[in-house]
DNA sequence: AACACGGGGTG
DNA sequence: CACCCAGTGTT
């Protein structure tokens, strides 16, 4: 058999399947590299259904790379609030400036050129190169890793560097025999997203079932192999929601650009669980002294690597005190309307909890 | 190689 | 509740 025949057959089968079963997604209605880039950044570790409304709003407000590059970062963050991994928004903005400044507003069309953009790693570079420019560039994401590990019976931990290297090699062998490469890469991911799912895969609908090693060995539910994950650490916090009585503005703090919820605003939070200590800590943060905090509720927020148990305390003040420069993790304090700034989902939930009317216990 | 980084859908 | 998602950058 000629070298590459098996790859060519698989690629053809999968691409043909994709033509019949592809979902109609907003970013599949364009060949604009900018729009495809935005979608790929949003889709990092984020599901299609979550991304769609964000993508629509974002493209409406920032229709091209120039409009994104010239927009204030705060506006970009506001359109990102709730999506998570906020560093992506900052890097997207920085990369837009890169494209305008270094490439005259024209997107790079090679993997190497794309890789140089902030926030574009090996996956995203392969995605843009293949989907927007039809370059025969491979890509491996969670879906592709799952499909390939099952189809070829790969029993090594897919998180390991060596296994990843092997997966990228296979993906490369396949995409080089595919036409067009962009459709093939999307087909691979689409299969993983809709048929070759992590649990309860629909093997009876799978175009690759006949040649699937995992299927043949009745091992579909044991592949891919993924190493054990660490349990998230629990952190106890107190959030202080201080409202200015006349204006109803709230004391909000902006987080440092690096780290958790980078660049977003929230009611000041300090580690710990007792209100007395919190009051002192707030002073250290530059907040008004001696506000009377009253506990009004509890919010539990789950992240991949953290569990945040937040006690929500509320206070009112008659005067909007002059604010000092806060200490870490905050960079600035402001009396503001929460609707006017970018909030994390945690901050939103804290504010909602503080807004609930207090019920008497009896 | 390990870790930080959000949020939500799914079984 | 556990799992994991169209990953990247830092340490």
Concise account of the structure shown:
The protein has about 350 residues and is an alpha+beta fold. Helices cover about 45% and strands about 15% of the residues.
Model description:
The chain is an alpha+beta fold. It has helices at residues 5-21, 33-42, 48-61, 65-70, 73-80, 87-103, 111-115, 122-133, 142-151, 161-175, 181-194, 213-216, 275-285, 345-355; strands at residues 233-244, 250-255, 265-266, 269-271, 294-302, 306-317, 330-336. Strands 4-1-6-5 form a four-stranded mixed β-sheet, with helices on both faces. β5 and β6 form a beta hairpin. The protein is elongated and about 75 Å long. The model has no long low-confidence stretch (mean pLDDT 93). The protein binds a DNA duplex (11 and 11 nucleotides) through α2, α3, α6, α8 and α9.
Q: What descriptive keywords fit this protein?
A:
single chain, 362 residues, alpha+beta, 4-stranded mixed beta sheet, 3-stranded antiparallel beta sheet, 7 strands, 14% strand, elongated, DNA-binding
Secondary-structure map with pairings?
Layout: H1 5-21, H2 33-42, H3 48-61, H4 65-70, H5 73-80, H6 87-103, H7 111-115, H8 122-133, H9 142-151, H10 161-175, H11 181-194, H12 213-216, E1 233-244, E2 250-255, E3 265-266, E4 269-271, H13 275-285, E5 294-302, E6 306-317, E7 330-336, H14 345-355
Parallel strand pairs: 1-6
Antiparallel strand pairs: 1-4, 2-3, 2-7, 5-6
The protein binds a DNA duplex (11 and 11 nucleotides) through α2, α3, α6, α8 and α9.
């Amino acid at each position: 058999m000629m070298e590459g025949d098996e790859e060519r057959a698989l690629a053809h089968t999968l691409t043909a399947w994709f033509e019949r079963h592809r979902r109609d997604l907003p970013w599949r209605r364009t060949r604009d590299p900018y729009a495809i880039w935005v979608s790929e950044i949003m889709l990092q570790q984020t599901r299609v259904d979550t991304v769609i409304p964000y993508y629509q709003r974002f493209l409406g407000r920032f229709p091209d790379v120039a409009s994104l590059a010239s927009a204030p970062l705060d506006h970009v963050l506001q359109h990102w609030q709730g999506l998570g991994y906020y560093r992506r928004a900052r890097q997207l903005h920085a990369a837009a400036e890169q494209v305008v400044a270094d490439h005259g507003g024209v997107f790079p069309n090679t993997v190497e050129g794309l890789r140089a953009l902030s926030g574009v790693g090996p996956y995203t570079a392969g995605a843009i190169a293949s989907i927007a420019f039809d370059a025969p560039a491979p890509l491996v994401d969670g879906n592709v890793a799952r499909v390939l590990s099952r189809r070829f019976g790969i029993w090594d931990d897919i998180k390991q560097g060596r296994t990843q290297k092997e997966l990228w090699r296979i993906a490369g062998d396949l995409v080089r025999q595919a036409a067009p490469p962009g459709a093939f890469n999307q087909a691979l991911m689409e299969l993983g997203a809709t048929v070759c799912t992590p649990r309860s895969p629909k093997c009876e609908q799978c175009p690759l079932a006949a040649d699937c090693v995992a299927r043949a060995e009745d091992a579909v539910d044991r592949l891919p192999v993924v190493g054990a994950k660490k349990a998230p650490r629990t952190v106890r916090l107190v959030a202080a929601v201080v409202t200015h009585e006349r204006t109803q503005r709230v004391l909000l703090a902006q987080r440092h650009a690096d780290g958790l919820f980078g660049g977003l605003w929230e009611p000041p939070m300090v580690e710990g669980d007792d209100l007395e200590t919190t009051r002192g800590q707030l002073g250290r943060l530059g907040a008004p002294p001696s506000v009377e905090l009253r506990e009004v509720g509890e919010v539990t927020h789950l992240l991949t690597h953290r569990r945040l148990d937040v006690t929500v305390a509320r206070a009112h003040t008659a005067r909007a005190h002059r604010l000092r420069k806060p200490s870490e993790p905050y960079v600035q304090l402001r009396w503001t309307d929460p609707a006017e700034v970018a909030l994390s989902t945690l901050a939103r939930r804290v504010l909602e909890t503080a807004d609930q009317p207090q019920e008497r216990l009896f």
